[in-house]
Specification:
Elements lengths: L1 E5 L4 H12 L3 E6 L14 E4 L5 H10 L4 E4 L6 H6 L1 H21 L5 E7 L22 H20 L2 E7 L1 E3 L14 H10 L5 E3 L11 E2 L1 E3 H16 L6 E6 L5 E2 H12 L6 E3 L8 E2 L4 H7 L7 H15 L7
C-alpha cells in the first residue's frame, strides 16, 4: 500500500504520517501549509505543497505515486470560526472533499479511503455514553460539514467499490514529541497554558452543569493513540477482500471534568493559580464521553495513554516554544 495523507503536516496529520512511516507503510503528504508545519514531517516522507481540492494536482499525485489509499485530514476545524464563516467551511470541508473523492474514484488503484470526522456530528446528545448509533444532530456548521462529509465518503465508496472508514475523534491532546505539539491555542489544554504563560488565571466556561463538580466532562484522547488508530484502520481497510465501510469513535471511554483537568495542569506546570469561572458557552454539552467498544471489538484497538501523559507531553512541547512559561 502507498497512502496519500492530506493535511499531513498538521498537528494530527504529522502524528499520523510519523506512525505510518515508522510502521513500514509508504506515504506521501499533501498539505497547503496554511496551518501545517513542514518541519514536523519525517525526513524520509515526501511533502507536496498544495490543496486537496486541486483536481489536477491530486490526479497527478495518485498516478505518479501509484497511490492505493487516502487518509483525508485536511480541512477547517474551528467551531467558532465555522459559525462566522459557514460558506468557507462548506467549501473547504464538503466541496473540497468532493473533488478529492472524484479523483480517488477515477484512479484505478485507490481502494481505501479514511476520513477524519469528529464527535461534533453528535451535537449535544443526552446519552450518558455516546455510541456510533447515537443520533447525529450537529449544532455548528463545522459539525454539519463533518456529517455531510461522512455521507459523501460512504456513498462514494458504495458506488465505486472503495472501502471507507469515518473516524469520529473526541478531544485530542498531547504530543508524541515536542516538535509535533499543537501550535494553536484553541483547545482547552493549550488555552490553560496560554493564560498561565501570560500571568492570567485559567478560565473555566461554566460551573453549574449537572456533573459532580459542576464543570463539563469530556473524553480526551492522546494524539499518539489517535495516530495508532489511523494506522489500525488503514490496515484493516487494506486487508478487506470486498469493499465495506466502518464508522468508529476514537476516544478512551473515560470522562475528565474541566476542573479536574485544570488541577492536573497545575500539578504538571507547578503553577497553582486558581481558575476563574466565566459564563458557559452556547452549545457546550454537560458530558461527552465516547463508547470505544466498536473499534476494540472490530480491530482490537484501544487507547493506551491517560490524561496525565497528555498534559505532560503538551506542556513539554509548549515550553519549547514558550520557554518563559517555565521560569519561576
Amino acid at each position: 500500500m502507498t497512502w496519500l495523507i492530506t493535511g499531513g503536516a498538521g498537528y494530527i496529520g504529522a502524528h499520523v504520517a510519523k506512525a505510518m512511516v515508522a510502521s513500514g507503510e509508504k506515504a506521501v503528504v499533501l498539505d497547503d501549509l496554511s496551518t501545517g508545519v513542514a518541519e514536523r514531517l519525517p525526513a524520509d516522507i515526501e511533502l507536496v505543497r498544495g490543496s486537496s481540492a486541486d483536481r489536477a494536482l491530486v490526479d497527478g499525485l495518485l498516478a505518479d505515486h501509484a497511490i492505493t489509499g487516502v487518509v483525508h485530514l485536511a480541512g477547517k476545524k474551528r467551531v467558532d470560526e465555522s459559525v462566522e464563516q459557514p460558506l468557507l467551511y462548506y467549501r473547504e470541508n464538503v466541496a473540497g472533499l468532493g473533488v478529492l473523492l472524484e479523483a480517488a474514484a477515477a484512479a484505478a488503484g485507490v481502494r481505501s479511503f479514511v476520513f477524519s470526522s469528529s464527535a461534533a456530528v453528535y451535537g449535544v446528545p443526552e446519552a450518558e455514553v455516546i455510541t456510533e448509533d447515537t443520533p447525529c444532530a450537529p449544532i455548528s456548521p463545522y459539525g454539519e460539514t463533518k456529517l455531510a462529509g461522512e455521507w459523501l465518503v460512504r456513498a462514494t465508496g458504495r458506488a465505486h467499490g472503495m472501502s471507507t472508514a469515518c473516524l469520529r475523534y473526541f478531544n485530542v491532546a498531547g504530543a508524541a514529541e515536542p516538535a509535533l505539539t499543537d501550535t494553536g491555542a484553541f483547545n482547552v489544554i493549550p488555552m490553560f497554558f496560554d493564560r498561565l504563560t501570560r500571568g492570567e488565571a485559567p478560565r473555566i466556561f461554566g460551573a453549574s452543569y449537572p456533573t459532580p463538580d459542576g464543570t463539563c466532562i469530556r473524553d480526551y484522547i492522546h494524539v499518539a493513540d489517535l495516530a495508532d488508530a489511523h494506522l489500525a484502520v488503514a490496515r484493516h481497510l487494506a486487508a478487506q477482500d470486498t469493499p465495506g465501510d466502518l464508522t468508529v469513535n476514537i476516544g478512551r471511554g473515560e470522562g475528565v471534568s474541566v476542573r479536574e483537568l485544570a488541577s492536573l495542569v497545575a500539578e504538571v506546570t507547578g503553577n497553582d493559580t486558581a481558575p476563574v469561572v466565566g459564563p458557559p458557552r452556547a452549545g457546550d454539552a454537560a458530558k461527552s464521553v465516547a463508547s470505544a467498544a466498536r473499534i476494540a471489538e472490530e480491530l482490537g484497538w484501544s487507547a493506551r495513554r491517560g490524561a496525565r501523559e497528555m498534559v505532560e507531553s503538551a506542556w513539554e512541547g509548549w515550553l519549547t516554544r514558550h520557554p518563559e512559561a517555565g521560569r519561576p
